[in-house]
């Protein structure tokens, strides 16, 4: 049954400053996204008091109101009562950039490049995890045989699923270059073609380069020069550099070419020059930069200070999500996977998500008599354990503050254990409890222990602090200001 949002939509319109203060409005899966002319006019306290609203935050120049799964109905009602025209998500992002500083714009651009391809990467991670379970877990024949060695059916499944895994990870540059051309508004098919030239079967596979003697690397011989025929399978930085080169070359030729011949001249010269530059210059440079990045991160995670690094990363990852800086980790993870065959960074991200969900779980038990609170916290905890943290973070943990810090502490301890025991993931996966499927088989037991830490520590801290503050008493809570933060205090 569809909820009636008419009253809340009307009230929200006034609380954000009225129609004149709305530069753009759109929505995503759980949130209303506003680009406000004057963000200071938004009455955050009263907005968060609305029955339909689970929290608010500002990110990437957009004032975002967490509504939940009914956001599309709320959005339709809001645009009706407001008399404003909604815009596409892309248009809202562009409008929001006027409120961003240079660093935020860089992070937004990175996020917009990777966002369209993340679903495929998650699927690939799950598939690699499942292949590990049936092909690497030797739990049969006194611990000497995997399922694929006992069953021709599962051996066939294992082989067949690699078709998808290879398409996602080996051909990742195709998706990256396509996403860049899509974001920048240039010809997307040219991006796809350029990406394919980076991973063509004619080229020496990137995974074979380290084990191939220099004299055995194939090359194109132009008489006056030779160009190594090296592929860039799974490489992130070369694909990003090549993609932006294509974009700016296409824009350049479109600007200087007469309209009557632009359909022929522009794509021909933009693509041809991009392919040449990608293989002659940008590919080797990008490979080197990518190697440096993964090398620095790997060295940090393998150094004598790795546990300290893990504690810091685990503690700060959730705040990074609020700023949007966490999107940089996607590129780092993918580069680590390409260079080392796995990533020990992503498991800590999954643990951070689990920790946020566990803090909410404690709030559910503390407020078990508060029906209104559980309407927010129960679905928030479920979505968090499945990898979507925003309802939990903005709807519960940041609202009360101390659960957020409890989750950060649990994430730090879980991350320390993960790094100390050498947990490695095959790929990016679902950033919650199902994330264990993306972990390499030898690391699964230790990751399970890290998950237990991420569940227990935030739960206990939140429970103890919540009990001290009387959140387990019957009834709702009022808010008082404490140290500049919204802190709850029991009513009655």
Automatic annotation (TrEMBL):
Domain PTS EIIC type-1: 108-481
Record membrane topology: Multi-pass membrane protein
UniProt xrefs under Gene3D superfamilies: Glucose permease domain IIB
Protein name per Swiss-Prot or TrEMBL: PTS system, trehalose-specific IIBC subunit
Active site, renumbered: 28 (phosphocysteine intermediate)
Domain PTS EIIB type-1: 6-88
Record-level Gene Ontology MF annotations: kinase activity; protein-N(PI)-phosphohistidine-sugar phosphotransferase activity; protein-phosphocysteine-trehalose phosphotransferase system transporter activity; trehalose transmembrane transporter activity
Gene Ontology BP terms: phosphoenolpyruvate-dependent sugar phosphotransferase system
Transmembrane segments: 113-134, 160-180, 189-209, 229-249, 261-279, 285-302, 307-325, 345-366, 400-424, 444-465
Alphabetical keyword list: Cell membrane, Kinase, Membrane, Phosphotransferase system, Sugar transport, Transferase, Transmembrane, Transmembrane helix, Transport
Keyword Methyltransferase: no
One GO CC term, this protein: plasma membrane
NCBIfam families linked: EIIB_glc, PRK11007.1, PTS-IIBC-Tre
Cellular localization per UniProt: Cell membrane
Pfam families in the cross-refs: PTS_EIIB (PF00367), PTS_EIIC (PF02378)
Stretches of the chain forming a coiled coil according to its record: none
């Amino acid at each position: 049954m569809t909820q009636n949002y008419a009253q809340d939509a009307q009230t929200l319109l006034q609380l954000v400053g009225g129609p004149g203060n709305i530069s753009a409005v759109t929505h995503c899966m759980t949130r209303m996204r506003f680009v406000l002319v004057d963000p200071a006019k938004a009455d955050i306290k009263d907005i968060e008091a609305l029955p339909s609203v689970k929290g608010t935050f500002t990110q990437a120049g957009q004032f975002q109101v967490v509504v939940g799964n009914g956001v599309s109905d709320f959005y339709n009602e809001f645009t009706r009562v407001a008399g404003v025209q909604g815009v596409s998500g892309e248009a809202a992002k562009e409008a929001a950039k006027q409120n961003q500083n240079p660093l935020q714009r860089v992070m937004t651009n990175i996020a917009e490049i990777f966002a369209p391809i993340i679903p495929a990467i998650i699927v690939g991670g799950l598939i690699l995890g499942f292949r590990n379970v049936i092909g690497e877990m030797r739990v049969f024949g006194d611990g000497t045989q995997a399922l694929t060695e006992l069953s021709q059916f599962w051996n066939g499944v294992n082989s067949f699923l690699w078709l998808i895994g290879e398409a996602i990870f080996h051909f990742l540059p195709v998706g990256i270059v396509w996403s860049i051309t899509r974001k920048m508004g240039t010809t997307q098919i040219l991006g796809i073609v350029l990406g394919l030239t980076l991973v063509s079967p004619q080229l020496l596979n990137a995974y074979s380069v380290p084990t191939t003697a220099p004299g055995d690397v194939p090359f194109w011989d132009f008489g006056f020069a030779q160009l190594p025929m090296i592929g860039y399978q799974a490489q992130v930085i070369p694909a990003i550099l090549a993609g932006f080169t294509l974009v700016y070359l296409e824009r350049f030729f479109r600007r200087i070419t007469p309209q009557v011949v632009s359909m022929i001249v522009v794509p021909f010269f933009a693509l041809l020059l991009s392919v040449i530059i990608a293989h002659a210059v940008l590919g080797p440079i990008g490979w080197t930069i990518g190697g440096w990045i993964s090398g620095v991160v790997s060295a940090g995670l393998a150094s004598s200070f790795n546990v300290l690094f893990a504690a810091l990363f685990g503690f700060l990852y959730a705040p990074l999500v609020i700023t949007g800086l966490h999107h940089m980790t996607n590129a780092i993870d993918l580069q680590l996977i390409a260079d080392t065959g796995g990533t020990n960074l992503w498991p800590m991200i999954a643990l951070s998500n689990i920790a946020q969900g566990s803090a909410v779980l404690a709030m559910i038990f503390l407020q078990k008599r508060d029906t209104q609170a559980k309407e927010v916290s129960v679905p928030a905890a479920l979505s968090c354990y499945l990898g979507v943290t925003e309802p939990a973070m903005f709807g519960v943990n940041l609202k009360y503050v101390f659960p957020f810090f409890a989750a950060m502490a649990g994430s730090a301890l879980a991350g320390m254990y993960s790094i100390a025991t050498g947990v490695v993931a095959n790929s990016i996966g679902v950033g919650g409890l199902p994330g264990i499927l993306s972990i390499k088989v030898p690391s699964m037991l230790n990751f399970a222990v890290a998950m237990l830490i991420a569940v227990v520590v935030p739960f206990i801290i939140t429970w103890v602090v919540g009990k001290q503050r009387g959140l387990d008493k019957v009834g709702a809570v009022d808010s008082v200001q404490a140290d500049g933060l919204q802190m709850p205090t029991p009513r009655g």
